[in-house]
Amino acid sequence: MNPYTLTLLRHGDIEHDGRLIGLTDLPLTELGQRQLDASWSRISSLAPVTAIATSPLQRCREFAVKHALSGSLALKVEPRFAEMDFGDWDGQPLSELEHCHPGWGAELADGRLSPPGGESFEQFRTRVLAGLADWMSEARGSHRLLVTHGGVITVLMAELLGTDFSVAKLMTVQRGGFAQLSMLEGHPAYLLRLESSCAD
């Protein structure tokens, strides 16, 4: 199998108001749209995109559909690339979650805590990795772009770079930014670049 580039593009700014946002389907703000447009220009200047996959949530999907149509690119809208299902916690203020469950983020990632009514971290990780495996088996071309969420990107970075989730979380992809990996089946991925959007 030939090597290819995998770009993980995080959706842009949303009106989250300090709340935990998982499957809540919020649109991008105007800033969020500018962030993605700026990153698309940068990504396209590095190498033409040959295939696109996206989360079905509108903060990812609308951008992906627009560029797939304008570039006549193969597009996969994949529910397994949606953000984690936080269940009853979705939409709750982060400050309130931290007050009720100090250290909840770390406990979630290492399996000691699961959001009520949502999915466990292991369920989330399993579905994301299965989604990637299926897409990679059918996607074609040397530059594949996934438009998705921060949690999904961190799971993929940890898996593809062979590191712990806690380490991958330190390589934060800002909203509207992207990580780019060099991929070759049977070999570890290499991190090529980690960039923030250059939009205001």
What order do the helices and strands come in, and which of them pair?
Blueprint: E1 4-10, H1 30-46, E2 51-54, H2 58-71, E3 74-77, H3 94-100, H4 104-109, H5 121-138, E4 143-148, H6 150-161, H7 165-168, E5 178-183, E6 190-195
Parallel strand pairs: 1-4, 2-3, 2-4
Antiparallel strand pairs: 1-5, 5-6
Beta-strand percentage range: 15-25%
Q: Which overall shape is indicated by the principal axes computed on the Cα atoms?
A: globular
- C-alpha-based Rg, rounded: 16 Å
**Major sheet: arrangement of strands:** 3-2-4-1-5-6
Distance between the termini: 40 Å
CATH fold descriptor: Rossmann fold
Taking pLDDT < 50 over at least 5 consecutive residues as the criterion, the unreliable ranges are none
Would you identify the CATH H-level superfamily? Phosphoglycerate mutase-like
Share of residues in helices: 25-40%
Any descriptors?
200 residues, alpha/beta, Rossmann fold, six-stranded mixed beta sheet, 7 helices, 6 strands, Histidine phosphatase family protein, PGM_Phosphatase
Structure report:
This protein is of the alpha/beta class and 200 residues long. The protein has a single domain, classed as 3-Layer(aba) Sandwich (Rossmann fold). The chain is built from seven helices and six strands, in the order E-H-E-H-E-H-H-H-E-H-H-E-E. It has helices at 30-46, 58-71, 94-100, 104-109, 121-138, 150-161, 165-168, and strands spanning 4-10, 51-54, 74-77, 143-148, 178-183, 190-195. A six-stranded mixed β-sheet has the order 3-2-4-1-5-6, with helices on both faces. Helix 5 (121-138) crosses helix 6 (150-161). The longest helix has 18 residues, at 121-138. The chain is globular. The termini are far apart. 38% of the residues are buried.
